[in-house]
Each structure stands twice: as structure tokens, then as C-alpha cells.
Amino acid sequence: MDVTLARHATLVVALDGVRFLVDPMLSEAGTNPPVEDTPRQRRNPLVDLPDVDLAHDAVLVTHRHPDHWDAWAEAVDADTPVFCNPAEADAFREDGLTDVRPVDERETFRGVTIHRTPARHGHGETAEAMAPVCGFVLDGDETCYLAGDTVWYDAVPAAIDAHDPDAVVVNAGAAQFRDGDPITMDAADVQRVVEHADAPVVADHMEAINHCLLDRDDLRAAVDDVVIPADGETVSL
User: Fold this and answer.
1) Concatenated DSSP letters for 119-180?
2) Please, which of 1, 9, 34, 81 could form a disulfide with 58 given CB 3.0 to 4.6 Å?
3) pTM, entire model
4) Number of structural domains in the chain
């Protein structure tokens, strides 16, 4: 199982000979305005997309926020299978995609089972406003849990316990508005995942969008035994 980080949460997961493109955010640096009501007002994405192989057999989208689904047409053909949260399936069809496959509980693609998992994108009213969002588990000869944009809460350890993954990918960065708690995992949340999972933990979702305030060096200093790939890096698990 190989996980290639393109940038932010855009991944290519290669499992059992199948390549899944995850959350394609493919805009050129500075194309989009900053996320509003955040401490650091810089245009997004903050960095260029590295030259990586984005070839894929299917696409997984955890949610349609622009830092996870943007400029997709540069790499995704309209007839590509796109697996998504059922609540967002119609929006993908309105985008012109012709093979949208909402994952209610599980779907199978070329021998890999795709499970949809819960996620909580923040706390309290903020999490409600940021919904819907989900994660996925890819289950083949090996199993990869993609937690998605979520903080640590009871559904995360429950998913780890239920699926016993061989690798866990968490969206870190401690994304935050001016008021309230982080809406993605901070260092303490990542530490909890590392302690709970009997598997390598890979952290992404850093240094590419203006509201992500936790950078790689700070996470590396705070949490031992977490894999933190650079943009463009492939991790073999």
C-alpha cells in the first residue's frame, strides 16, 4: 500500500493494484481567496501543486469544501467513478459527473471494499455548519483508514477498532477560525490517534491553506511516531 501526498489532503492511495485519488484540490497557488474569519489572510492555495502522478482508477471525496474539491476537471474525467457521501451525490451529478457512487455504508470497487465512516468537522454549532463530511476505509489485502476532516471524538477510535487498519491517515493542521476550537486535528488529537492505533499514522492537511495553523515542524516536535510526508512524497506502508 502506497500513499502519495500531492498537497493538503489530496492523495493517491495505491492498494491492490487500484489507484484512488482522494479529495482533489488542484488549483494553482494563489488562485482562490483566503478562508474568511481566520487569523492568517493569504490567498489559497499557499503553495504550488508538485509534479506528481495523479493517474487514478476512481476518486474519493470526503466533502465538497473547496480545499478538497477544486479544479478537479484538470485531472478527473466526467465518467470517472466518484465515491462520496450520499448527501452530496446530487451536487456531483450537477457538476457533470456521470458515474457518481454514493457510499451509504459500503461499496466495492475492483475487489476493494470502501466503507464510509463518520467525521465531525469541528465542535458544537461549528461542526453542524461544516457538515456533511465523512471519512473512508479502503479494505483490500491491507486496510487504510482515511479519517477525513474530523477532530478526535468517539467515532474515530470506534472506526479504528472496527476496521483494524494497517495505516491511518489523519487531516491535521488545526484549521481554525478566529473564535472557537480547531475544526481539524491538532497535535493533541494526532497524539490520541497514534496512541490508539496499532498501525502507522500519516498526517497531512498542513501548510497549504491559510486557516491551517499547525505546521509540520510543530507537529513533528509535539508527536513522536507520526509520519509527516512532504508535498509530492510517497509513503510505502
Assistant:
1) ---SSHHHHHHH---EEEEEESSSEEEE--S--S-THHHHHHHHH--SEEEEE-S----SSS
2) 81
3) 0.98
4) 1
